Hints:
This protein has helices at about 30-35, 35-45, 50-70, 85-95, 135-140, 165-185, 195-215, 225-235, 265-275, 330; strands at about 15-25, 75-80, 105-110, 145-150, 260-265, 305-310, 315-325. The protein has about 375 residues and is of the alpha/beta class. Helix 1 (about 30-35) runs antiparallel to helix 2.
Amino acid sequence: xxxxxxAPEVAEVPRFVRLLFVRHGQSENNILMRKSHAxxxxxxxxxxxxxxxxxxxxxxxxxxxxxxCEAGTGPSHVVVSPMVRALETAKPIAAACGAAGTAGRLLxxxxxxxCGGVFGRDGAAPVGRVxxxxxREEVEAELPGVACHEGITDKGWWRPGRKETDAERTxxxxxxxxxxxxxxxxxEIALPTVDQFDKLSVDMEARLATLRRGQRDEDxxxxxxxxxxxxxDVGELDAKTPKALPKKGGEENHPGPVATVxxxxxxxxxxxxxxxxxxxxxxxxxxxxxxxxxxxxxxxNNASVSVVDLYPGGTTRVVRLNDVRHLDPVxxxxxxxxxxxxxxxxxxxxxxxxxxxxxEFESPTAAP
Length: 368
């Protein structure tokens, strides 16, 4: 008789690390931007706190994460920028996840700070203690139970002492993405030492220079062979086509993450990180994605959640961008919770945007 047909080979779906990028709640600077650029320039605070609306948004995010934890899909780790607005946003999230005080689960990392860093109104070094970054003791007071990275000392953590240049923040974001990639490759959530990150940054700077040199040949035309060599050199940051991913709607065939990391940070850091993590194929001829100002940008509301899965070997799977369902009036009982932009915010229901945040700005430290 006929031989039995061999069973089709099923490709193994690799395990992955899930990143939950959380933008901080509305800050004092955010509300100045909504008034006017002149108001922002004149009143900008180097390390602002959340407004009352921002605290309400943070609490809404905390409830959202509590529901995730109840469903067994909450974060195993919370990494937070040491900027005040991020620490305040992370507090209810860490409480909801039980991360505070648990060894290695709640980490403050300087490299997750906003692009530009801590700087005064003119871009120079801040003047006076009120504009200085937090010390280790102050970070621990803002977010009880947090484990501070060694880069956060009793003198502060912002090492440049001035506004970060575009090139510097691109390199920092590239190095930070490489750290995130290492989590997927090893399955361990660990932060590099200051020296290790500095060496990684030097490597990223050299790779960026190599990319720019290799984009064009002597005639100015795109050199595919050169780009291919460059692509091979920076494979850690490239999101290549996965060997196996679940079909649409096939979550039942998709194994859970080996770790889920909530990164409570800032708009531009999230924007640049996701742009780098989702880059696929050869770099564009212009090298725009790796230039100080990438051409691919995203918009993130205050307290929004964006979900990105990282697989070993460089694959990226974008699950959700700018999820703000937890800020809906149905859940919060409040309108005006969608903030973070001015004219470029898309609101499905205009009545949910009342623009009255200024009325609540007088006492940003009051209880929500």
